[in-house]
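The aim of this short unit is practical: by the end, you should be able to scan a pair of folded records and say something sensible about each. We start with the first protein, listed as its amino acid sequence and then its structure tokens.
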Amino acid sequence: MRAYLSACTIYRDAASYLAEWIEFHRLMGVERFFLYDNGSADGHREVLAPYVDDGTAVVHDWPMPFVGDGGRGLALRHAFDHCLRAHREDSRWIAFLDIDEFLFSPGGDPLPRLLPDYEEYPGLCVSRAEFGTSGHRARPPGLVIENYVHRRRVKPDDWVPVKSVVDPHRAIVSLGPHTFHYRSGAPVDEEGRPVDQLDQRGVKPVAWSRFRIHHYWSKSQEELERKSAQWGSLGAARETLGVRGRLHGDVDETLRRYGPAVREAIARRAGESG
């Protein structure tokens, strides 16, 4: 059956985060997940097995090295392009996200309830909030959405990065992790303003009252350091961004309210598979 909203991501050694990411987005109304494994050596297959078995998730092996493209990697762009080709008929909308990004509506509405307002456009660009370590040196127990609550302070006239929710029939190719090239027309932000896909800065002023992405870029300081080392091993060295990694601007506990439901869903799924 064709889904209305699906999500696509590429990951590597993210077994301990996959269930939270999937179950959170299922609560938001995402029906299917197109996942690209970039050479994981952890227990990701075991975590994903129940989702694969019931058709919720499709996993593609994607060992292409992350090289070039300013450090972001051709592997990601080609994975997104493959998803467009392979799953064009499987979903009305596909959200292209990272495994540390959580898409939701601040008003609490299921995403499929809001997206029909944008069906005339080839894509929707969603503004992103950047979260840091919240003072955690080591990874704390519990969920990402509960543990990390400090984000960069954003002024109304700031540029904010976006990620894309696209109509796979009108999207031609990925231009990078944030934007796409479309057959006709321009994608818009939640207010219906056209977004320049060649301007990787994102949108200005900030628009995130209907749709928002929380980007848990660093998680704990130790995980940030491991992440930097992992990117280096993939041939795409990244700065550790000490200032960005801390990001102690505003306290934002918006997603904590979903913690109990996400934990319950994870436990239920584990019980069913066990």
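Turning to the second protein, read its sequence before its tokens, just as you did above.
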Amino acid sequence: MARHPAARTRRQFVQGSLTLAGLALLSGCSSLTAQTPQPSRAFRVGLLAPYSLDPSPEGTAFRQGLHDLGLVEGKNLAIDARYSSTVESLQAAVRDLLSRGVEVIVTIGSEATKATRELTGTVPIVMLLSANPVGEGLITSLARPGGNVTGLTNLGAGLGGKRLDYLRTAVPQISRVAVIWNTHQDAGPALHEIKGAAEVLRVSLEEHPVDKPGALEAAFSAIVRNRVGGVMLLHDQVSELWFQKPTIALATEHRLPTIAEVRSFAHQGGLLAFGPNIPDLYRRGAFYVDRILKGAKPADLPVEQPTKFDFVINLQTAQALGLTISQSLLQQSTEVIQ
């Protein structure tokens, strides 16, 4: 797996049309056999995410990480999972988890972390996939998080410049790139990073915030009208749920090269994907759960940055676009879809 150096270091989830079917409750039914002198002791962990992790590579990696640390569902660990993508249902989910006496809550994404932190300052929170936890006010610093929040950042705000560089390398003639993002995410830090890279690469940017999947049609009409040469989709959990596939479909229709963060983007037909290896972050998240259940305080556990990255190239998409991907770029990839 290729390694890359890290670049630089609410408010609401999408409502209305972006509401998932309420709270899909999946009460965890789990217990993890941990290395503990009290085999009858069952720890209770809460999990708050915008969508179900069962089955998924991320969910598998998280549970395997717990298992490797001696925490086994059905033996010494119970996981209560709640899934929601709106502020209202997130808060209801947090209250429900707190009422069940969970000893730590694992939150997937910044909005889930914010909703949990607003409702408890004492129950430990292990955040995963937070793009900019310091800037979002979730922690004081990576080294000294303070408070009851720790975990991992996915560096979502700091890798946009590298993605633009990869897109420009794959399509050297690009001079104008559209950036699409979900209006309910804090895209400021990521846009700042991308703009800095655009100046160096001599690429002009066109910004297209969207608030619902239907808005993508209008965005792509402008993109085509303005002769934009490529598209970048900024990632958050809602974007992945609601905007990823429509963006790929519209880009394919208009023969536009694309790049995003998660590898599933390339697997679904996008040209490129570059970002942290997400299953690895989930696996590492199990370490924080284990440490906290053994008595560590979140304030004393530094927030980690990714160490493994995915760079996926979809050669099928490249061929459909009439692009020839250079050998040097192929050699930098961690996966090539033939």
